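Hi R.,

Quick one: here's the Triacylglycerol lipase sequence you asked about.
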Amino acid sequence: MIVTVVVSPLCFVQGQEEQNVLISEKELFDQCGPVHLTAIDWENVAHQRSVAASLVQGVYILERDKQEKRKGSQALAPPWWRHFQFELYRVLVDDVDSCIFGAIYKFAPSKSYFDGSKDKSQRFVIAFRGTLTKGDAFSRDIQLDVHILRNGLHQTSRFETAIQAVRHVVATFGSSSIWLTGHSLGAAMAMLAGKTMAKTGVFLDAFLFNPPFLSAPIERIKDKKVKHGIRFATSVITAGLAFAAKHKNVNNQSGDTFVALSAWTPCLYVNPSDPVCAEYIGYFEHRENMDTMGAGVIEKVATQHSLGGLVLNFMGKECDEPLHLIPSANLTVNLTPPSDFKEAHGIHQWWKPDLLVESKKHQFT
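And here's the predicted structure, written out as tokens:
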């Protein structure tokens, strides 16, 4: 039996061992989850976003339950998926530190559940959490964050576990009813898994919250002319190097890969006040600006390449394709002013009922 008393942003849970454990209010679905969603319309993009974000939160709480040894009736994670008629199909564990970094959920409605649109729901959702700042998982998560900076996430054992899980679900159940979702580091994991599958012709629906974009923080510049000038100059230099690399037969396959991925259109959710992901706004906006001013050909080449990668290739060094290079996306920007960085980067913002967002599809052709 669980007895909960809310005293502030923190509360106490009394469990079977009669011990009080300090927990965050944000771990409690009834306190911070989208309890307003009592019936899911699976064609409603806001409902899709809220469910996907909640399932990612479920992975965060799974690891926190493990760290705090909360089991059975003490566990706080199950409501984050049971509320939406999902069950936990499998947990994904990092072989380095044995932390839970992902989960596979299966849609399993009760016999009493009936919804005319339920057949359009996803049967499986593969979700990945981001960096945890508490407990034993922190050091391993930070190592993986560094791998993202070095474009080496694909070389880690955690990603190998993730992609094997994705391939298993696709091979066993098909790809038409599978979602990929993740937040921050987990969004990078889901994006890399989605790009890997897309290269084989399998295009999975993806919901990526605050995905990392590795770039100078140009989006934070207030002066639009200065911002556009920097982006324009970068595009011209990048396109010039790409043409030169092609002429000199320098090894760089990012352009071919970019075109091959153009049919995959993941959903990206970013906050302009979050420097981790805000550059996606300018990344896609700049393409349109270049088309408008008649420089679309330059940008079409530039957007397929990393300036840093081209420079390294000219120096004779191998450089992997940057994770953030993505041809197409449904980009959703949260226009609701956050109180601080923690809120701008957090997963909780994405299921709020009063969320003010702006969405646009960007298709690479």
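The chain has one domain: 26-111+120-220+253-298+321-363.

Cheers,
M.
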